[in-house]
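Aim 2 progress. For RsiW-degrading membrane proteinase PrsW (M82 family), the working sequence is reproduced below.
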Amino acid sequence: MPSRRHDSLVFTVVVSSIAALAAVPFAILMLLAGEGPSVVIASLFALLPVGPLVACYLWLDRYEPEPRSLLVTALAWGAFVATMLAILVQGLGGWFADLTDEQSLAIVAPITEEATKGLFLVLLVIWKRQEFDGVLDGIVYAGFVGIGFAFTENILYLSAAYNGTDGSAPGGLAGLGVLFVVRCLASPFAHPLFTAFIGIGLGLALSSRSTLVRVLSPVVGYLLAVGLHAAWNGSTLVADGVGFLVGYALVMVPTFVSMVIIAIWVRSKERTILTRALDDAALRGLIARDDVRHVVDLRARRQARAFAHRHGGRVAADTMRDYQQAAVELGYLHHRVLRGTAPKNYEERGQMFVERMHAIRPRIAFPVPMVAGGRHR
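Predicted structure tokens for this construct:
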């Protein structure tokens, strides 16, 4: 059976190719927006918040890690495809509708940017439905798309600030530094936060048995993303920047804190969901009951891999990881079966996971827990 890491190859190749094609005109656009050195400097500053943001989303994604190839693809889509499409649509809209810069910033930009970012999530649901299990996956994928989008957009804004072509003074490193504090330090979470509502909407739709929820939640999620984005952009136009400070304190910070709480709460439920599903799977003979703890408990999961590495090296640790990953996939699929929201091919996919686990199981061994008195159980 093909392993999960190869399941997303076609999707990754196609979307990555689209991103590569979009990167070419975008690179030309960035060079036209400013001199070469300013683009390089702006890129270095724009890159600084990317690492910490990526680390936060990877932490959220620990229970059922998404394929790294898809996460990188999400970054690339946000950085090149979504930004390029948004620029093209906004340019055409400004031409045909004769919109002012303020109207474009407060209305057109939120509508088009959230649509182009959200398009990746829609494609993922259509093409790689099995990689999108619920709300947490929606938040994670939306986060990576938003990080990529913000990175490229920040390059454009920081480059313009450095060159003094954005209407702000004084230009140079001073002008770039002021904008860096506002965009990269004070609000690096903005784009991931906006698009998270789309991810939540799609996640609710995929995990619900209600037809009404499946239809309305993605629409509501998109409208919330656009509304918050519009409020954020529009606040910069009020009272010479005072509106931005008020909006940041009263809207953005509370919304961001609420989203963090929601994400952590959803993540905390993952262990309960996985435990119940795999306990039921163990009753059906799909997995050994003693193995469940080494799958659902993150600390025990790490200890099992470390134990395998000590006794068999890197190959043994990778084999243990493959077994645990197959068990995790089986658990989430079985959870959806128990809820009545399983995909049409759930029997085929479930059999694939079980066969992978049974093929690997004779080649691994879990650490034996200690009992009182220091003896092995």
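Residues 4-237 form one domain. This observation will guide construct design in the next reporting period.
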